[in-house]
């Protein structure tokens, strides 16, 4: 039996009410301030996970009652102490490896110092997140009839760890890439590195996310912005958008206002084992978790008890390796999902037809003009 632990935290203020119902009646600032003084809590117990190899797994979910704003706006030394307490709890429970969820893997040096202070290894899960985001995006593009060499591909948050790795993993399959982030100097360095390794690739840079997606056939959103940065009117008919970010980069109204675009949840993974129980309501059906948590589970099952993905950069060979290990154990993408709801082939075909109709209307209007 292998054992792991995973740190999670509320992504929105409303998430407090899932664990502490009384908080829905209190002011947000009061709740956030009060919970800054609460120690990590045991949020769930994962049981019944069984690899295709026969290896079994259990784990513990450790909750930090801190919103993204608190984590990002507090001194990192203070956040690190919270993470260290959670890590010590994981060690006491018998975990062999610790995964960092959501904004706990963005804060500070992305797990490096925490790993130095613990007796068990740490991973952010970003390698498997990258692998499965690209896998799902390419599969969806094929379903939507998008020809990759002709497609305009845009990556939001391209200079972050997942964004950068996503660019390098996508690059061999595409010819046109637009990279988007806040700082032009960092974008220029990334564009240079991509051009050096992939001469066939045309790379553009942009700092305005909304205008950068207006002609994009494929969008991968991995920005660390604490809220939605793309609205319905920003998108091209027939576009495929994979939203890996948590909180989401894509507004929830997009799917209602734009039935001609395909928005996907990035990195929702089904774990192996008929009796697998995640021990927590993630908002997914049973046996499904985010890819970052799945990476921690895969490493534990593989006896790869090491600091696999930490720090600012993700190594492409590790993205490929964790993808292979996931398949070995029976982890796989949970089909196509958007906003926690499964979508089937018939729904995707309907989106594709609506997009074709919309593009035809635009061409007709342009001819008349």
Automatic annotation (TrEMBL):
Residues 144-256 form the Quinate/shikimate 5-dehydrogenase/glutamyl-tRNA reductase domain. InterPro entries: NAD(P)-bd_dom_sf, Shikm_DH/Glu-tRNA_Rdtase. Coiled coil: none annotated. This is Shikimate dehydrogenase. It comes from Sulfobacillus thermotolerans.
